[in-house]
Amino acid sequence: QPEVGKPMRNCYSLPGPDFTYGMYLHKRDGGVAEAIGHWDAVKAKPHVRIMPRDFVTMGRMAVGEGCTTAREFALYYKFKDIRCKDEGILRYGCKIPPGMTFGRPGRPSTPFFDLMQHRYKELWMESQRARTVVQHVVKKKMSDVRGNRTTFLRTHPLPVKEESFWHPQRFEKV
Question: Could you tell me the superkingdom of the organism this chain comes from (predicted)?
């Protein structure tokens, strides 16, 4: 019978004060000093990627071998397993070329000496001068009057047609 006003007692006895609840890890139980001083780095496992089958190449080779029916093609595909080639995409864990940042090469540094001498301003001014010269040439070409058919015929008259003295044979005795 439970005592009045008190909960029922459980029948389990608790372990002693030196008992550790949960799982004790010998490897990583170094406390705060080990957590701050030593980072636990995980090495990446090589990822084996199975490429899909290259049915175009297998079909071409099967025709070259003389396969004509669907059964022959299926048997050829079963015994000749050709996979697509890997294009060499950079994956996690493989070496990245030097100078590459997230797949794009780094920008070349701007020469400070050119900045100090206003070299970029001079290049811009030269390009503007060349642009205005081109614009003037185009404008000059546009201002010329374009000749039409009448002006062409005035300068180049048509050749005069020579009158032919040929007559039909029946009028020769007249």
Answer: Eukaryota
70-124 residue pLDDT tens: 999 999 999 998 998 876 554 555 666 676 666 677 778 888 888 888 999 999 9
pLDDT at 135: 93
Alpha carbons within 13 angstroms on the beta-carbon side of residue 170 total 0
Q: Which helix (H) or strand (E) holds 100?
A: strand 100-101
Number of structural domains (the chain) is 2
Question: Looking at the domain assignment, is residue 157 inside a domain?
Answer: no
At 140, the pLDDT band (50, 70, 90 cuts) reads confident
For residue 66, what are the domain limits? 46-82
Q: Is residue 70 part of a domain?
A: yes
